[in-house]
Every structure is written in C-alpha cells, then in structure tokens.
Amino acid sequence: MAELENNRLSFKLVYYGPAQSGKTTNLLRLHDLLSPELKGEMMSMETQNDRTLFFDLLPLGFRASSGLLIKFRLFTVPGQVAHDGTRKAVLSRADGVVFVADSDRSQETNNGEAFQSLAENCSRVGLDFERLPLVVQFNKRDLPGAVPEAELRERWAAAPWPLLFATALIGEGVEATFEALLRSLYRRHDEAFQLAAVHGLSEAAFIAGAKGEA
C-alpha cells in the first residue's frame, strides 16, 4: 500500500485480467505514449506459455512543487489460472487496479472468471475491494466479434467503476484508462497524504504530472 517516507510517495498499480486480454500491450503503449519527468525502462519476464509469467514493471514518477517525489510502479499479472499464486503476489499491496477484459464475445466466460478471481484475491491479500481504485477496460475493440459498446455499457451500468474501451495494440484508449485510474487514485488518497493541502497537487496536476504534461 502507498506509504509516505523520506518525502517519497509510491503507488503500486496492477493491470489484471484473463490471459491474452492485452495487459502487457497496455503497458507497452503507455510507456511509448507518456513522458513523465522520471520514466524508467520497462521490464518483462516472458516464457513459452505465458508472456508475463511474473510481471512487467513500468516505473514512472514526477516531483511536486513541494519537493514530494511521487512514484508509480505498474505491473501486469499472468492471466493463466495456473499462475494464481503469482497473481496474488503481484496484487499484494496494490493501490489501484485496471481490469483488462477481452471484448470478443467468445471470451465472456474467461472475463467473468478473471474478475471473480480479482475480487477473491483482493480479499486473500487483504485489499478492500469495495474501496480499491478500480477501472474496467474492454480491450480489442477492433475484433469482428467484439461485444457492442452499448451492450457492455448497459451490462455494467450499475457497477461503480469507470468503464473504458480500448484497442491497446494501436494505443487507442490506453491513456484514457490510465487517467481514469489516476483520478480514482487521487480521490482515494488526497486527504490521507494531503496532496492538495500540503503539496499543492490538485487532481488535474496529479494526473498531468504522472502523464508528463505538467
């Protein structure tokens, strides 16, 4: 979980979802699109069976006018059910989650099972699922079998989380998804860390700093 130490505040953000839904592609495109003050290299551990058996790590960061250094560490979890232990380990102490769903109608069961595993694993690692900053992204909108946006909006209408649509392969919707997560993250932690009151960081400035637009 986020902790303020030595004028440094670090947030752990996790991209979670079924296998091959585009979690790693989101991070790859995000790394290309963003230009924050402090942007590290992206690391990926690949295997024959799962592109991200452990995680991708995309370090970002910026410094507030107060001198506070804000860091973001972005991870993906392996989508395959066999690696549930790894998923829990990566999810542990997360401050925010993007759930990346596959828009193809044939993947609806996999999406549902992955979302259920997210809720269950949050409980297992001590995260409050009801209060966790969470964004739902339906990726692969370019697929011919993609469930229509109107149908998905109706289905998720009662859900409390922002719903985004993306084609991560070409970068479409990737920044918007990240921005929606940053917005939820700020609103969850502003008061606790006095981001506005002490460090002069409005919600807009927080988002702009993370995206390299400050």
Describe the overall structure.
With 214 residues, the protein is α/β, with parallel strands linked by helices. The chain has 6 helices and 9 strands; from the N terminus they run ββαββββαβαβαβαα. Strands 1, 2, 3, 4, 5, 6, 7, 8 and 9 form a 9-stranded mixed β-sheet that branches. It is globular, with a radius of gyration of 17 Å. The two termini are 25 Å apart. Residues 51-55 have low confidence and may be disordered.
Tags for this model:
214 residues; alpha/beta; Rossmann fold; nine-stranded mixed β-sheet; 6 helices; 9 strands
Ordered list of secondary-structure elements with their pairings:
Elements: E1 3-5, E2 8-16, H1 23-33, E3 38-39, E4 43-44, E5 56-63, E6 69-76, H2 84-91, E7 96-102, H3 108-124, E8 134-139, H4 149-155, E9 163-165, H5 174-193, H6 203-211
Parallel strand pairs: 2-6, 2-7, 7-8, 8-9
Antiparallel strand pairs: 1-2, 3-5, 4-5, 5-6
For CATH, the homologous superfamily is named as P-loop containing nucleotide triphosphate hydrolases
> What is the distance, rounded to the nearest whole angstrom, between the alpha carbons of the first and last residues?
25 Å
What's the CATH C level?
Answer: Alpha Beta
Task: Say what the CATH topology is.
Answer: Rossmann fold
Radius of gyration: 17 Å
State which percent range the strand residues make up. Answer: 15-25%
Oligomer: single chain
Q: Report the uncertain regions.
A: 51-55
